[in-house]
Design a protein that fits this description.
six-stranded mixed beta sheet; about 20% helix; CNF1/YfiH-like putative cysteine hydrolases; alpha+beta
């Protein structure tokens, strides 16, 4: 179950709203699936991506600091990979590592805050509470087709000797099946990413001859296939709930970004 949290920030006690997964509310983990609600956030978001529009860099940087501060984390420790819709996952141990072409990051370093950005793609936070290892994954359709979340679970196993059954997963707000018709080639690649011939993740609705895809369900199925049992899935559709989240499709590509954040630095 996803739980709404409201935090007051700044001298005027303005409110930032974000969601936590009740499954991930464990000692040693601070996490958030942010929304577009907060002072100065509505148009540009927390994580639009500095450098892509230099005129907005100061606004984006300020917004990032606000959400990290609201979580009582150190903004100077924030790691934001350069997401390019790959299925690449990297284990990091310090703040200086290169994160080009990286859509998933994992760490056991309590001095690192992981932050990835989203606007319809699937945000996934992974946590192994026994060994205090965290991961954040950005799974668009390309990353999902490439089983990026399975790649992340494999990194947990190979680098930290963590069995999938001991990993908790929170799948955050994503464009829903209701709003996500895809072309046949995309459907084919996504269908081939799960080891079943048919499932409810692929549907044709009465008013549309295209196949609609459930990205959250596909990522959930992939996690289950590799042995992850404890999975919390958000019910939000970023397109339907565009007043609460950013949506690339609903806003015709001109939108900000919300984020998934995780740190084992400590609780608030």
């Amino acid at each position: 179950m996803f739980v709404l949290v409201e935090e007051q920030v700044g001298d005027n006690n303005q409110v930032i709203k974000y969601y936590e997964s009740s499954l991930l509310q464990k000692d040693g983990l601070t996490h958030a699936f942010t929304t577009r609600i907060g002072p100065g956030m509505g148009e540009y978001g927390f994580t639009l991506g500095t450098g892509r529009n230099p005129a907005l860099d100061d606004i984006v940087s300020t917004n990032r600091k606000k959400i990290v501060n609201a979580l009582s984390l150190d903004g100077k420790k924030t790691v934001i990979p350069k997401q390019e819709h790959t299925n690449n996952v990297k284990v990091i141990s310090n703040l200086s590592e290169s994160l080009e072409l990286t859509d998933g990051v994992i760490t056991d370093n309590p001095k690192i805050v992981l932050m990835l950005q989203f606007a319809d793609c699937t945000p996934i936070i992974l946590y192994a509470p026994d060994k205090k290892v965290i991961g954040v994954v950005h799974a668009g359709w390309k990353g999902t087709a490439g089983r990026i979340v399975c790649n992340a679970v494999k990194k947990f196993e190979e680098n930290f000797n963590i069995k999938p059954v001991n990993i908790l997963a929170g799948i955050g707000p994503t464009i829903g099946q209701c709003c996500y018709p895809v072309a046949n080639d995309v459907y084919s690649k996504l269908k081939n990413s799960v080891n079943i011939s048919s499932c409810q993740a692929f549907k044709i609705f009465d008013n549309d001859d295209k196949i609609h895809v459930d990205l959250k369900m596909i990522n959930q199925l992939q996690l289950q296939e590799v042995g992850v049992e404890n999975i919390d899935v958000s019910k939000f559709c970023t397109s339907c709930d565009n007043d609460l989240f950013f949506s690339y499709r609903a806003e015709n590509g001109k939108t900000g970004r919300h984020s998934a954040i995780a740190s084992i630095e400590g609780q608030k």
